[in-house]
Amino acid sequence: MGVVKLLAALFKAIPSLERLVISLADALKEANAKNRLEDKLGHIDALIDGERVQHTTIGGGEGVKPTPGVSEGKGNRP
């Protein structure tokens, strides 16, 4: 408790020190929030990329007939 009282007394005596500590705390909070947001966005991007991969690799178009290839025809032509 003595440390808290000492800091409070310092902040009252030197207001610029209080503003400095508050600005540092705000900057730290903002940096942490930005990191959390980037992590969330990265996770969302990974999920979306995973869905894209699944949609392109699963299934081959059921009910769709492949187009026949061109035969080389070794016989006589009409």
Structural write-up:
With 78 residues, the protein is an all-alpha fold. It has two helices and no strands. It has helices spanning 2-13, 15-57. Helix 1 (2-13) packs across helix 2 (15-57). The mean pLDDT is 80.
**Which range does the strand content fall in?**
under 5%
Order of H and E elements: HH
Uncertain stretches of 5 or more adjacent residues: none
Structural class: mainly alpha
Shape: rod-shaped
Number of strands: 0
Please summarize the sheet with the most strands: none
Number of helices: 2
- Rg (C-alpha, Å): 33 Å
- Approximately how much helix is present in the residues? over 70%
Q: What is the residue-mean pLDDT, rounded to a whole number?
A: 80
How many angstroms does the end-to-end distance come to? Answer: 105 Å
Task: Summarize this structure briefly.
With 78 residues, the chain is mainly alpha-helical. Helices cover 71% and strands 0% of the residues.
Question: Topology, pairings included?
Answer:
Elements: H1 2-13, H2 15-57
Which structural traits does this protein have?
single chain, 78 residues, mainly alpha, 2 helices
